[in-house]
Write a structure and sequence with these properties.
184 residues; mainly alpha
Length: 184
């Protein structure tokens, strides 16, 4: 598969990145557990590269109880201190606190919309958006503002755009990429 054309951003020297690009990025996700994991991971990306976060994904899963939302919502100061000492993850106190806060808001959205999937896909009427060479859009602006209004942190328009790409609401595979579909 080394002679296959992929999106230019995909680091071909990093097998995790290749697998993420080939099997996950841009694939529509409707399952709340995966949507939850990705929004937490994306919030840790702020100011960093996605590759950095992706390389630590398994460590994040372990540190955050396999992204068990009920457990994360109930993290106390002792658990926060444990996370801040965990050298395998990104140890940013603001991001760790926001992960806990955002988890509670994620649950509130689930209650309101029955699932977070219903909430996020409602913005496009369950349609996939095909576009490339963007880092934000009117859609990511709208969702970012709504999540911020609800109290989420580290969910600016660029992070939300990246999140929408990661969960397949936006498909941004480049024209030359073997996964490019339905693009002009």
């Amino acid at each position: 598969m080394s002679n296959i054309n992929r999106c230019k951003w995909c680091n071909l020297k990093n097998q995790k990145y290749i697998e993420y690009h080939d099997n996950e990025w841009g694939v529509p996700v409707y399952e709340d557990q995966h949507l939850y994991e990705m929004i937490i991971l994306e919030s840790f990306q702020a100011g960093l590269s996605w590759e950095c976060v992706l390389n630590k994904r398994e460590d994040f899963r372990e540190a955050f109880n396999q992204f068990d939302i009920d457990k994360v919502c109930n993290y106390d100061d002792k658990k926060i201190q444990e996370l801040l000492k965990n050298e395998k993850i990104i140890r940013n106190k603001l991001k760790i606190n926001s992960a806990i806060n955002n988890s509670k808001i994620f649950k509130d959205i689930q209650k309101e919309y029955k699932t977070f999937s219903n909430y996020i896909w409602n913005f496009t009427n369950n349609k996939i958006i095909y576009e490339v060479d963007k880092t934000s859009s009117e859609l990511s602006d709208t969702i970012s503002k709504d999540l911020q209004k609800r109290g989420m942190k580290f969910v600016g328009t660029t992070i939300i755009y990246s999140y929408l790409q990661a969960i397949g609401v936006i498909n941004s595979h480049e024209k030359e990429c073997f996964l490019n579909k339905n693009m002009n």
